[in-house]
Structures are given as structure tokens and as C-alpha cells.
């Protein structure tokens, strides 16, 4: 079992996302994360899915997804060939006297202050999933109050496309 | 034109001659359009499940897309079993359901149900139509998706106000489905590899399934079998795709298939799967299935190839084309001398001779197998086009074993879903598709009671069928499992063979009723039923203790198939 990232071009129609997620639950595949959004064309959405499965199951998943009428294309994003990004919002508890320390720390880590409250700051972090995790670890000692991640999105690197 | 009329004009444009259904509130405008006039014959069922199975029987008997129509809510949910059945057996179906008005959708309105949501796992695709302008293109797409690629059911849910809305109707010529691209050809290199493997094999076996019938590739399969002298086993769903009386047809493998068919797969060095999906009822324990064989897997559905069993040579594409190309390629490869299949075929023939289907004729107790033999002989003497349908259970397995089907689309049964109650409505649908055929439903008493209200449909719509109920008074297959695997604790399987009285029930519906209590009454009753000129029910009271053999117990290796006990068996 390894984690694979799939990129799915999907017709932007009512129920299309439900058909994909239904297929995953129905066939017993476990989705780790799913991000969906618009693309360069308003009638097409792109899904980025993270699944835990064997190579053989992955092939099954791809084939089953291709049978969905709303699915236009399924490609696996291999780490070497693709760009992956994710966004997290993290609210960290911090008393006023430690605020400056925390902000300095976050700037080093590339996070942006999104909102400041009396006893907490919300940071916005964009980056590779590993960078998000590193930032989370960094601020954990202060006390993470709330955290939300978008789930990763990905694209094939054009530089790899050229070489292939 | 109104949306409701547009539905009928679309069905007509698709060449639909019969649709099956029941009206109701949310689909009333469409029935009003039927009243205004259409060339589509509407067959009024008594339950939407019946309408769905009729549409399936129609599709299986004709090769065309079956159409079922129901109202919203319970009408639609009653269709679900038939849709699931069509999904499992790849039967092309367009189901049209009425839906509440668009402004009520999502409010839990009267008879509102999310039928596109409920059916999502068991349709190829579905549409909820809330804009009348979309109706023609949706129906065009629905028929296209149902019949192309691997066939199957689709659902079109139409809001009531859409049926009542005005549009300028024109039926589209093309479909606009960028995400639906079933394969249209096979890869020549894969066909070449398959031909080389067949040429090199010492013990090849074709394993043909229902996909051959769906693909209308029976002639191509037969040409391949004849050209390469390939022995074949044919699944329950494929029965009739290669004539049962063809000497190279070794019948059905699987849980209640013959010992020789199971052994043939077990000893083969090459399995050529064609439109079959390695169902667990065929393979038995997978690790012990065809253990020494390489696999060539022909299928229109890429997702079936490698799903259960790894295929060394996958061939994805339309079977009709693929098999024709394979036959040509096999002949080309064998130009310098065909391989000698003699020793392998002699082994298979020896097994077929040594391990025929067998049962013990009781002392005065009528055995269900005897009834099927009589039925087979009666049908053979008719020299007519005979279409068989069945329910699910022991009678179905005996029908598979004993009936002889030499023509495609002459054996119609519920395989994947195993839907009890399928037989009678499927027979009515088959009769609507092929009015000149004699249509016979072989049923069990448990199955028959699940959809016997459709006797009214058969009688009143003048779609006469013969239903032969092998009445053992039990849920026979469940009883068999209770006897063999649950220490004879017969929990809730006894139905009694007297209630209802099936002959009287038949008469109540305007059909002819016959009761058979002993072997000597069989011939006359069957002859009477076939000659009745109206729907007939033959209640065949038979041995409740008879078990269906051979049998591969669930989870066992198919090679270890159990035969009818020798001491009581008569070859």
C-alpha cells in the first residue's frame, strides 16, 4: 500500500463529484484527501485525489473512473513529475507578550499573518504538504487552536512534459 | 410541443416499439402524451419491479434497449431492483421516471425521492432533467450510453413541470458526451499475441459469457471455436451464445456447472475468457481456479480485465470485431499446420461421458429434473422459436443443466444479482419482443410468488407465456444450504406446496391452470399448457428434498465439485 495522487478532469455538472466519491466508497477505496475546483475552462473541474492503495488497485480505480460519463481524464501525478501545493489556515493561541516571537518565527517559515486576535493569531501557509506539516510542528508548542487544510492540488510539471 | 410529447417523439426516434410501466402523479403528463397518440406500445404492468424486469426481458430477447416508465417516489424505488439487476447483468435499459416539480425538488414533497442518488451505484449514468430544452439531448445520450460499450441501465428523471413545458422539438443526430468513449477497435498486437498463445497451447479452453450475446458476436465465437478446434465452456449468462448441442460446447462451469466443465478449466493451460468476468460463482476459490493456465481476456470493459484474475494477454474492445480478427489471425498462424487438439478433446469427452448430470428417480416422487427433461422434450417437439426465462435458485440451475439452447437470446435469467421473481415479468417482456416465439418461464414457487401479479399483465396485454412452477413448497436452494451447511435447521424456508393453489391462482387471473402431481401427468399438462393459446401456469409438485448437484461449496476449489451421491444416483 502506498499513497497515490490522482488528477481527474471532470465535467462541471451537478452530481459529477458525487459520482466520483460514490465510486470510491462503493468499491472500498480510501480517500485521504480530495480537492476540487475550477480550471482554465468553466465547464471543467479538476479533482486532486489522494488514495492509499496498491498498484493493482490503482489501475482498477483509474479504469472504473474512466467509465463514469462525467470523467474526462484520469492521470496519476507521480512526485517526480508534478507540482503539489496545499493551503492551511492555522489559529495559534498566543498571549500578547509572546506575539512578536511567534510572528518572527512564522515569517522565517514563510507563513502570512491572516488575522490577529486578543489571544490568538491565524496564519496562512501555502506550500508543499511537507512545508505545511513543518510549520504545524513549529507552532504546536504554542497551542494550535484550529487548523484547516485544503487538501493538496497538483499539476504535471510542464518541464517534465517537454522532456517526455 | 410539450416536454411529455418530446419524450414520446424521442422514444419513437430511437426505434422503441414497446415500453413497460405504470402511471402516477409525477409522470401523468407523459401518460397524457401516450393518450394523445404514439407508435410506442405501452404495456401496463402491475408493479414497477415487474415493468423493469419486463423491459429487461424485452432487451435480452431482442438485443434492443428496454424501456421502463414509472412515477416518482415509490414508483421509482420499485424500479430499483430491476435497475440493479440490469446493472449486474449488463442489460441495456432506459428508465424514465417522473419527478416532482422543479420548485419542489429538495423539499421532501409528496412522492419526492432522490432517485438519481438512490440508483447512482447501479446505473451507467443518470440525468435529472429540470430544463425542457435539455430533454431531447438527454434522451439521445441516455440511449447511446445504455447501448454502447458495456451495456447497462441508465435513468432519466424528469420533473413534472418539464413534461408540461413547451419546446421546439428536434431530435439531435449526434451525442455530445466527451467523457464517454467506449473502445471501438481492438489492438492488433494483442490479437496477434492471443492467436500465438492459442496456437501454442496444448489444453486451451474458451470461457464464454453473457458479453458474447450482448455484443452479438455469437457467429464470430462459433467461427473461432470451429476454426481453431477450441473446446468451450459457457456461463449461465452466456447460455445460447454457442449452441448447447455443438460438440465443442462443454456447458456451464461453476457452482452448479458440470464436473467436466470445471475440470476442463482446472486442467487447461490457456483460458480464453470472452465477455465473462470471473464471477465467484464460476471460479470457486480463486487461488485454485485454472491454476495452470495463462489467461487471454477479451472484454469491452477495460475495468473487468485484471479485476479478479490477472490476464497475461488483455484484449479490450468490441467482441464482434475482436473475435473475427482473432479467428482470421489464428488461421494465419496455423497456416503451416494446426496444433493437434485430439488428446485434449479426448480427455474432455471422456470426462463428459463419465460425469454426466445425474439424479435418482424417486419411487413415485416427481423429481424436478424429470420435469425439466419433459419440458426440454416438449419444447424440442414444437419446432418453434422457444425462449426460456427463469427465476433464481435450484430450478434455475436445473434449467441451466437440462434445457438445450441452440440459439442466441433463448435463455434469459438473472445471473449477477440473483433476483427472485425475475422469471415471469422477463418472460412477458420477451414475448412482447418476439411475439411469434413460445416463451416459457421455468420458475420456483418462492420466486413465482414474488411477481405473480404480472399474470394480469400477461393475460390482459395478450402476451401469453407458459409458466412452469417447480413447486417443492420450499425456498429450495436455501433449504439445500441449510441441509448441507446448517445442520438441517430449516429456518423459515417452508412455504408449503398447497398455498396458494397455483392452478386456481392462474384461473383467477384469466390464465389456464394445470396441476401435476406425478410423472405420468407431466406430458399432458405441458402439452395442454403449450396449446392453451393463452397464458398458462403449470404447478409441478415435486420432491422437496431434492438437492441440486453437482455443487462446488462456497469457498471450495471448483475442481472439488461434489456430485450427486453415487448410491442413489442413476446415470
N-C termini distance of chain B: 67 Å
Number of E-type strands of chain B: 17
Kindly state the number of beta strands of chain A.
9
Strand order in the sheet with the most strands of chain B: 2-1-3-4-6-5
- Number of structural units classed as domains of chain B: 3
- Over all CA atoms, what is the radius of gyration of chain B? 24 Å
Helical residues, percent of chain B: 25-40%
Strand composition percent of chain B: 15-25%
The CATH superfamily of the largest domain in chain A is known as ACT domain
Shape of chain A: elongated
In percent, how helical is the residue content of chain A?
25-40%
Based on helices, strands and strand pairing, what is the structural class of chain B?
alpha/beta
The major pleated sheet of chain A works out as:
5 strands, antiparallel
Biggest interchain interface, per-side counts? A-B, 19 and 20 residues
Total helical elements of chain A: 5
Note down, in words, how this protein is organized.
The complex is a heterodimer of chains A (164) and B (571). With 164 residues, chain A is of the alpha+beta class. Chain A has two domains: 2-77, Alpha-Beta Plaits, CATH 3.30.70.260; 83-154, ACT-like. Chain A, domain 2 (Alpha-Beta Plaits), CATH 3.30.70.1150. Chain A is built from five helices and nine strands. Chain A has helices at residues 16-26, 55-66, 99-108, 129-139, 158-163; strands at residues 2-11, 30-38, 44-53, 71-77, 82-93, 112-116, 120-127, 144-149, 153-156. In chain A, a hairpin with a 3-residue loop joins strand 6 and strand 7. The radius of gyration of chain A is 19 Å and the shape is elongated. The two termini of chain A are 27 Å apart. Chain B folds into three domains: 3-164, Thiamin diphosphate (ThDP)-binding fold, Pyr/PP domains (Rossmann fold); 188-354, 3-Layer(aba) Sandwich (Rossmann fold), CATH 3.40.50; 368-548, Rossmann fold (3-Layer(aba) Sandwich). Chain B is built from 22 helices and 17 strands. In chain B, strand 12, helix 16 (394-402) and strand 13 (411-412) form a beta-alpha-beta unit. The model of chain B has no long low-confidence stretch (mean pLDDT 96). The A-B interface holds A 11, 14-15, 18-19, 22, 26, 56, 59-60, 63-64, 66-72 and B 116-117, 120-121, 124-126, 128, 145, 149-150, 177-180, 301-303, 306-307.
